[in-house]
Amino acid sequence: MTGELKIGTMNALRIFNDAFGLIFRRSEESLHFIPTAEGQGENGDIGPLRPFAINLRTGAIYVSHGAKIEGGLAIGATDNALGENSIVLGDNDTGFRQDGDGIISFYSNGSRIGHIDGLGLHLYKDIESNCSNFRLKSNYRHHITFTNEDGSIRMFLWKDNGGDGVHINTVQMVVVISFLKQMGDLRWEVVRKLRLVAIFMVQCGETTG
């Protein structure tokens, strides 16, 4: 055979065995790959599944019943430099990658910016915010924790449970900063080993202690 194979019917081509058949079907402006029902591979009609379709007008691809991709996926990029189990966006080394059980890392130009796991969000770069708020709504006291390289706690900040105070704990010393709404004063209390050593009052730009 030379030249094109031209089929003008709606169901144009069938690939089959005893168990299943796959029918190439043109429906209006789309081309569908539709399996037959099981056991009807040679002579059965199209089944209920529509796993894959191509819009002949726009070129868009539709996957209706999930997809399994071995390797990486590139969206808007020519290839994927992050390797298996990854999705790159725009260029070949910016995107997301699964780096272990329950670990999703995100990369920018090949640099690992952070990851998410069962413990939460972990960031390796600075956080910069322009004209927006950072809000913590929980009453749990250890809101922001600073740790050493070995993971031990160096200091942490927390908000009083139901109060107005903000506490800074440096392990050896606790500094309590509380805003007194009625007086409009800023009060500093420095506590070391559960013993009050100094109280500073800031009022009208002057500091007393």
Largest sheet: 7 strands, antiparallel
Q: How far apart are the termini?
A: 99 Å
Number of domains: 3
Number of helices: 0
Would you identify the regions where 5 or more consecutive residues have pLDDT less than 50? 178-184, 190-209
Q: In what range is the share of β-strand residues?
A: over 45%
Classification by helices and strands:
mainly beta
Helix content: under 10%
Number of strands: 18
Looking across the biggest beta sheet, what order are the strands in?
12-13-14-15-16-17-18
Overview of the molecule:
This is Phage tail fiber protein. It comes from Escherichia coli. The chain is mainly beta. The protein has three domains: 11-63, no CATH class; 73-123, no CATH class; 144-208, no CATH class. Helix content is 0%, strand content 46%. It has no helices and 18 strands. It has strands at residues 11-16, 21-27, 30-35, 52-55, 61-63, 73-75, 86-89, 95-98, 104-108, 111-117, 120-123, 144-147, 153-159, 165-169, 173-180, 185-192, 195-203, 206-208. A hairpin with a 5-residue loop joins strand 13 (153-159) and strand 14.
